[in-house]
Amino acid sequence: MADTRTARRATNAGPGRLLIAVYILFAIAATSRAALQIATKFDEAPVAYLLSAVAALIYIVAAVGLARAGHTGRRVALACCSVELVGVVGVGVLSLVDPELFPDETVWSGFGSGYGYIPLVLPVLGLLWLWRTRTAADA
Q: So where does this one cross the membrane (predicted)?
């Protein structure tokens, strides 16, 4: 019984696997985009391109945290999802209020509109999954 309960609470089991896969997909997409932009046209919009690189790093670390599952992995994933949510909302607001701040799009511009708003939904799903799989020791 304890093994079943532990398995149900693991962040890397069940729907958590899909969440990890989406984080990995976004890590690849954001890393590729940022690397290309930084390598070819960094001087055009350095802040935007560096923000995309930061988003990529957060996606990578969040995926690792969710995949590791244990106490440390959960804390890492919680921190990443929280920073990601604040980042996508903050950059989303700033990109709408003052578009000149970001002469080119970032992963988080317009609340992730260039990626179908998944960057806005992903940290919310991550936080909900972490909450759903929490144990008494995590509280």
A: 50-69, 76-94, 114-131
d(C-alpha 25, C-alpha 65), whole Å: 15
Confidence band of 46 (pLDDT split at 50, 70, 90)? very high
Q: How far, rounded to the nearest angstrom, does the alpha carbon of residue 30 sit from its chain's CA centroid?
A: 10
* Per-residue CA distances from 126 to 40, 75, 98 (Å): 33, 12, 29
Q: Identify how many contiguous H helices and E strands the chain contains and give both numbers.
A: 5, 0
Predicted local confidence at residue 2, as pLDDT: 47
Q: What does R_g of the chain's alpha carbons equal in angstroms?
A: 16
Flag whether the pTM goes above 0.85.
yes
